[in-house]
Amino acid sequence: MLSWPRPRSLQLRLSLLFVVLLVTVSGVYLLLISRTADDYLAENMQRRNLDLAASVANVLRIDSATNEIPPAAIAETFHAAMVINPNIKLYLIGLDGHLLAASAQPNEIQTRTVAMAPVQELLAGRQPLPLYGTDPRHPARPRPFSVAPLHNAGGAVHCYLYITLDGPAAASSEPAALRQNHLLGVLLRTLLVAGAGVLVVGLLLISLLTRDVQRLVAVVRRLQAGDYSARARGIGANDELSELAAAFNAMSVRTEQALDELRTTDTLRRELVANISHDLRTPLASIEGYTETILLRQHLLAPAEQQQYLETILKNTHSLKRLMSELFELSKLEAHQTVPQPEPFSLPELVHDVVQQLKPTAQTQAVTLRVEPTPAALPFAYADVGLLERVLQNLLDNALRYTPAGGAVCVQVTPTAGRLALQVRDTGPGIAAPDLPHLFDRFYHSDQVRRKSRGGSGLGLAIARKIVELHGGELTVSSTQGQGACFTFSVPVYEP
């Protein structure tokens, strides 16, 4: 079976739909005009012949002796009236609507009962014209009519003279001429001009509307082709299309950002693999070398040398273990697999505990490690104690690692804007300005030799930053080269 192809253009489909709707509305309008014209002609005919039945009824006389109209008088009157106006049919009907006499031939009559409701309404004169009554010759086609009562000698209604008028449906010359009158022509010309104007304006508006859609489609195709900087501009004006364009622009921005993040992540992944490989290669090579030396020269090495080699192997093993543990911890933080379990606790007490744990290390390095006095009635913090302890350990370990002998590391807790701020300051060599933006990157360090000599893995600050972010804070650093560094972050205050 053949089928017409569906138009693919939205503008063409909307135009076809608009034309179909316009033609349909015009057809309905023409039908209404036609029916209105028919009603107008019927009203005009009925109004002009409203007194026709009364004038004919004046000729008919009811015999007082028989209380009937002589059939000869009926036939003569009906014949004379139809000679004058061949388009009418005359009937005598009883009070119940039953036919008593008719000008039509008996074989033409299809029903012998006339509906009395329209008759009474026309006689009462309270209903607007036209009123359609039963046509005994064509019961399915009501006709405008004229009616008048016939009274007997006592003044009572004896019967009705019922005259059907040829309406618009049956008219031949007069209705046809009326349909061509000036009024109908004006209406049709008005419809034609208005329809043409609406068609032009509608097609123009559809073109303007679909122009924005076409522009949006072009931008989407640019994005599909790989141009992620494509944006929809100047589309719509506070309407659905403008909202769609805004949503597309937001989607494009997020897509571009996601791609940038993917590129950054890929770059970081490559750097991470390279750094891990580098950091693993050195201790593994050391372990391998010392192990082979012990195995090959076991009988030639003095006990003191063997002890030194074994201690070096153990030190490198601890370094590998620490590196793998920190990598695992950082990966869990970045994958959001670590969920904080906050609880109220005293932050100064936690600071004192961590400081006491690291004081032996500070004393060994001849570095002063102290806690600054805290304000009285300090509120409880609300955070994960274990994770926050890890942050403090990393910051203090980092500060002790780079503070020379005779220096100092200070920890201070202060309330600020509904949170508790914690600062870790040292008197070390400070951090160069170019290194500050990259300080929290994994494995980043401006001095790789110093990092290795100090035993750092380059992951402690990255871990600390992730933990602080989990608590809704931000780990920041300020430093002037040669004057030490200061790390600051804050945690929420417990509110019962």
Automatic annotation (TrEMBL):
Residues 207-260 form the HAMP domain. The chain crosses the membrane at residues 12-32, 186-209. It is found in: Membrane. Its EC number is 2.7.13.3. One of its GO terms (cellular component) is membrane. Gene3D superfamilies: 1.10.287.130, 6.10.340.10, Histidine kinase-like ATPase, C-terminal domain. It comes from the Bacteria. Keywords: Kinase, Membrane, Phosphoprotein, Transferase, Transmembrane, Transmembrane helix, Two-component regulatory system. The keyword Kinase applies. It catalyses: ATP + protein L-histidine = ADP + protein N-phospho-L-histidine. The keyword Ribosomal protein does not apply. GO terms for molecular function: phosphorelay sensor kinase activity. InterPro entries: HAMP_dom, HATPase_C_sf, HATPase_dom, His_kinase_dom, HisK_dim/P_dom, HisK_dim/P_sf, Sensor_HK_Regulatory, Sig_transdc_His_kin-like_C. Residues 275-495 form the Histidine kinase domain. This is histidine kinase. It comes from Hymenobacter psychrophilus. The lineage of its organism: Bacteria, Pseudomonadati, Bacteroidota, Cytophagia, Cytophagales.
